[in-house]
Design brief:
Strand order of the largest sheet: 3-18-14-17-16-15-8-9
Strand content: 15-25%
Bound molecules: flavin-adenine dinucleotide
Largest sheet: 8 strands, mixed
Structural class: alpha/beta
Helix content: 25-40%
Radius of gyration: 25 Å
Shape: globular
Number of strands: 19
Number of helices: 25
């Protein structure tokens, strides 16, 4: 215990007990994928035997890439794996590696083409959905839901016909749901606003300024620990309509903005005082996982970042295609005009989409019929992997090798070896879809051509953390008049009350007397470096950080931000879940660091080429960190499988 640990409540008995339990299981049996599951030597058949009460959405503590889910993959990288090859193999029409939205969509699309197909989906986590994970809390007898990763049905592009059609088949009409279910303005109706927390380490003293969007900036920043010039320049940036690039055409401005970081735009073009930079440094963290030093100015313009209002850029239709980043320059109004991207989200985020996919693939595992009732439906994990079922979803199963049986050009089958229940198991199929992560594939499939392996290793996924904290009531937020706080210098750079969405039988919290969840985001990065290097450093940091360190930081940050409203971390915190994603968002090319490739030169295009009976899906293979991309890439991979099979 450290000096102020007792004040922070580090000794309190919260439901991280669950974490301790799962860590205990990890030490004993889950570690390295050793969850219960029995492989019959005679048939190779794997019998699923999840222990009674197995229900991972309710686990707290360290989730996301949880202990036991990844250690073996890291050993694979260093060639340090058990080599006893199983004698028997299970046989399927299709094996899919990865049970995220892409892998589940691939299963869906294959069954559409081949309704009687037998499919095995393998995933290394203890829950399905990949990044689209559900966190479920029991708060004083009421179930409260929140996303552990993928939240929204949104995208910088219109959803494709394929992705929109799949949502429709699952009963998800985001426009209708947005109109009937979303209640995002609840907190503002209570007079709660957005705020900025200035921390003493970055700015000199702790200060919470509340009223973004409702107060003039000079008033909002009146007591903030900024110099008068930094304060005035921040206000100018947000409120004045100045053309900082006179004499240039709209296209010339966009071209230049695409090649400079937002930080450079602020300092060199808008000529703000350097004291403004720390205020905005972390404002890109949630979307890109790096600060404004590594994000292009044109990238942030469509999201309403300050400084562009006098530049007359607003012409979404004429948005330039800049290098390998075709999404740049679309505007929010552009999305609306094209009608393709949605704003609705379920209370547990796109975990509901994963659950709808699972319900369609294994109907007995999740009861119900609609997009509304899936929210409160309880999934029966024991039914995911039943002998004889046409689709089997096998969790806690980390794939370590995939190969064609014979020469890629003439192979009739492919083979998958995976680790489960403390031993290796094998499955063979007419085709294998790798809906896992690109950088993992060269280790699974060392026979791939060298150029393809190099391309698959190029991208570095964004590390990030979604922390969800259950608190006894939200009087402190009410008293301080705030529901969302940007904290540019803190461990978690954003903190907000759980968004309210009423849907089906699920009702969000309404009374400040009731327990609620707080959502906090951390994106570890190292400003000043190339984006991929920042991601590598951040990933190593996340894998190295213990739950105890997260917990202490969470408690201290909440105390410093909210104690003026009466918040007491020792008394008010009921449970903590840290969704740690060392391999988070798919990498999107960044014109500040990546070459201006033509499409056929782009690493993800080279990397996703089919290899004999093996095809590649996942959002990495579309170089876009969005659910529509995960679905589209699954559709392409299944089209390739169909072509191979005919
Ligand atoms: C914190 C976070 C928030 C996000 N928010 C949004 C959002 O709001 N909207 C949006 O559209 N997108 C969001 N995304 C992007 C998200 O990645 C995609 O939308 C989508 O969920 C990706 O699906 P996927 O199936 O392609 O990949 P994943 O979800 O990563 O699924 C791949 C699965 O394969 C598994 N796997 C990897 N290697 C192996 C192996 N060797 N053996 C077995 N299994 C393996 C992985 O563990 C994982 O479970 C978010 C991502 C993160 C991390």
């Amino acid at each position: 215990m450290r000096a102020n640990d007792r004040a922070l409540g580090m000794d309190q008995r919260i439901t991280r007990r669950d974490f301790l339990n799962s860590a205990a299981i990890a030490a004993g049996s889950i570690a390295a994928g050793m969850l219960p599951g029995v492989v019959s030597e005679a048939s190779g058949e794997v019998a699923s035997c999840a222990p009674p009460g197995y229900y991972p959405p309710r686990l707290t503590g360290m989730r996301g890439s949880h202990p036991g889910s990844f250690e073996l993959a890291h050993k694979l990288r260093f060639g340090d794996l058990p080599r006893q090859v199983p004698r028997q193999a299970e046989s399927y029409d299709l094996v899919i590696v990865g049970g995220g939205i892409s892998g589940l969509s691939a299963a869906y699309f294959y069954r559409e083409r081949k309704p009687s197909a037998r499919i095995l989906v393998l995933d290394n986590h203890d829950d399905f959905g990949g990044h689209a994970k559900r966190n479920e809390f029991d708060l004083a007898g009421r179930t409260e839901l929140i996303n552990g990763g993928t939240l929204g049905i949104d995208s910088p592009r219109p959803y494709s016909v394929v992705a929109t059609r799949l949502l429709g088949k699952l009963g998800v009409d985001p426009v209708r749901l947005e109109a009937t279910c979303a209640k995002k303005d609840f907190y503002s109706s209570l007079g709660l606003r957005r705020g900025i927390f200035f921390d003493r380490e970055t700015f000199g003293s702790d200060h919470l300024a509340v009223g973004i969007g409702t107060k003039p900036w000079t008033e909002l920043l009146a007591g903030a620990p900024l110099t008068p010039t930094a304060r005035a320049d921040t206000a100018r940036l947000y409120e004045e309509k100045i053309d900082y690039m006179p004499g240039l055409s709209r296209e010339q401005k966009k071209e230049r903005l695409a090649r400079m970081s937002y930080r450079d735009f602020l300092l060199s073009v808008a000529a703000v005082d350097p004291g403004v930079v720390p205020v905005l440094q972390a404002s890109t963290h949630g979307e890109w996982g790096v600060g404004i030093d590594a994000v292009g100015a044109l990238e942030v313009w469509p999201l309403g970042f300050p400084g562009f209002q006098g530049l007359d850029l607003n012409d979404p239709v004429a948005a330039p295609h800049i290098g390998a980043a075709p999404h740049m320059g679309l505007t929010a109004s552009g999305y609306a005009a094209t009608g393709g991207s949605y704003r609705f989200h379920f209370p547990d985020g796109n975990a509901s989409i994963a659950r709808l996919l699972v319900r369609s693939l294994v109907p007995s595992s999740i009861p119900g019929r609609s997009a509304e009732d899936v929210v409160t439906a309880v999934s029966d994990y024991h039914r995911l992997d039943r002998p004889g079922a046409p689709v089997r979803i096998r969790l806690n199963s980390i794939v370590v090798a995939v190969r064609n049986l014979g020469e890629p050009a003439s192979a009739r089958k492919a083979e998958v070896i995976y680790w489960r229940g403390g031993r290796l198991a094998m499955a063979r199929a007419k085709a294998v879809v790798l809906a896992c992560w690109n950088m993992m594939i060269p280790y699974l499939c060392p026979e791939l051509p060298d150029a393809q392996k190099k391309a698959l290793k190029y991208a570095v996924k964004t590390p990030l953390v979604y922390t969800n904290v259950a608190i006894r009531n939200w009087h402190a937020f009410r008293k301080l008049g705030v529901h969302e706080i940007h904290a540019p210098g803190c461990y978690h750079s954003s903190v907000r009350l759980n968004q309210t969405v009423d849907i089906g039988g699920y009702l969000s919290v309404r009374s400040p007397d009731d327990p609620i969840l707080i959502h906090m985001v951390r994106t570890p990065c190292r400003p000043g470096l190339d984006q991929r290097e920042q991601h590598r450093i951040g990933r190593a940091e996340l894998l190295d950080t213990s739950f105890e360190v997260f917990e202490r930081n969470i408690r201290e940050q909440l105390m410093r931000m909210l104690s003026a409203g009466g918040f007491d971390p020792a008394a008010d915190i009921m449970a903590i879940t840290v969704n740690r994603w060392p391999h988070g968002y798919a990498y999107e090319y960044n014109p500040l660091f990546d070459p201006d490739w033509n499409e056929h030169e782009q690493p993800h295009v080279i990397g996703r080429a089919p290899f004999g009976r093996i095809t590649i899906a996942n959002s990495d293979s579309g170089a876009a960190a969005y659910t529509d991309c995960a679905i589209d890439q699954a559709h392409r991979a299944i089209a390739e499988v169909m072509a191979i099979e005919t």
